[in-house]
Amino acid sequence: MERGNAGRERHPPLCRPAPGRASDPLLSKNRGPGSTVKKGKLARWGSTALLLTLVIIPAQCTREKGPTAPVERVYSEQLLIGLIPEHNVFTQLERYEPLASYLSGKVGVEVKLKILSRYGNIIDNFVSLGLDGAFFGSFTYGLAHAKLGLDVLARPESADGVSSYYGLIFVRKASGIASAADMKGKRFAFVDKATTAGYLLPLVYFKENGIPDYREYFSETYFTGTHEDSIYDVLNGRADVGAAKNTVYYRIAQSDSRLLNDLEILAQSPSVPENALAVRGDLDGELKDRLKTVLLTMHQDPEGEAVLRNFGVSRFIETVNEDYAPVYDYAELAGLELATYDWVNE
Q1: 167-269 shares the fold of 78-162+274-323
Q2: Residue 150: pLDDT above 60?
Q3: How far is the C-alpha of 16 from the C-alpha of 186, rounded, in Å?
Q4: What is the share, in percent, of the chain residues with pLDDT greater than 70?
Q5: What φ, ψ does residue 52 adopt, rounded to 5°?
Q6: Mean pLDDT throughout 252-263?
Q7: What mean pLDDT do residues 135-152 have?
Q8: Theoretical Cys-Cys bridge with 230: which of 100, 114, 224, 327, CB 3.0 to 4.6 Å?
Q9: Which of 1.10.443.10, 1.10.1040.10, 1.10.1240.10, 3.40.190.10 is the CATH number of 167-269?
């Protein structure tokens, strides 16, 4: 559609005649010599042709028109939310992008995601990347609250009413490892020094079993970066012993029967809150309330319910700092001071 100099819309003709032909064959100058049309017939034919032109040709033009492009919503505000590397990056995006899109539409701000390369990075990068919030594991939230003063809002609850997870220490059934004493000289796969299940649980387990320095006790220790990789490293023989959270362990077991057939669980930690959304303490109070309200009520909305199904949970529930008491107790047992803790992996 064109516009004239005065800004008025100039509509194109409904359809242009084919090149080289007059628009009305009854009025064409190319009739042969001596051809005549009586005036009455001409009037009737002309009226008929005009009627057919008005009825048929617009329909042809309508068919040529393409589909209307969807209108992309533009937001005046943005929330940048960090994600810890619980799974590989593609699995994380598949779970969280529909949730981010839903929150954007309901809260009225653009929610953008930033996947971080490792757990501890979420503390380092929260300030440097200008993050407004993040979905924290229980230990990373404890660190973020102690170091940055973040406020936790909500965490997911599964269909069976569970909103927590626990850590596991596991081995291959055929490894001959049945206790901490059997682990001496073996290879241990941690997840990250900023995880409850992937590091804090093993530290307490070692302490309870008389292992003062795991670096000397095992022939090799290393950090895989994700719970998924720790599980598969033990399953595939890269490591002899591993640690990970139960939710990831049993989620993988649903599609890979080798976990239940070939692995054995030796130890389990107390339950701690599932990954929760926490935001800056100085985030606008009204925005914080809208975000929390949308999360806590989305299971009542058909669109929100579909997003939750994709996320693998039934709803979000309110979460407060006091829910993390088991994490703080476990850190104390392990001899860690969260406010000064160095989470950099060796």
Answers
A1: yes
A2: yes
A3: 82
A4: 75
A5: -65, -35
A6: 96
A7: 93
A8: 224
A9: 3.40.190.10
Q: What is the 3-state secondary structure (H, E, C) of 44-62?
A: HHHHHHHHHHHHHHHHHHH
Token duo for residue 198: 């992937």
Q: State the chain's maximal CA–CA distance in angstroms.
A: 118
pTM above 0.85, yes or no: no
Candidates 3.40.1190.10, 3.40.50.970, 3.40.50.620, 3.40.190.10; CATH matching 78-162+274-323: 3.40.190.10
Closest CA to 213 of 335, 112, 100, 313: 335
**Residue-range domain boundaries for the chain:** 78-162+274-323, 167-269
Residue 177 DSSP class: -
> Any alpha helices (H) in the chain, and if so which ranges?
39-64, 89-107, 121-128, 138-148, 201-208, 214-217, 227-235, 246-253, 258-262, 285-297, 302-311, 325-333
Question: Residue 142 has which token pair?
Answer: 């404890």
C-alpha distances in Å from residue 8, one per residue of 11, 12, 15? 10, 13, 21
CB contact at 8 A, 291 and 239: no
Q: What is the C-alpha to C-alpha distance for residues 73 and 123, in angstroms, rounded to an integer?
A: 32
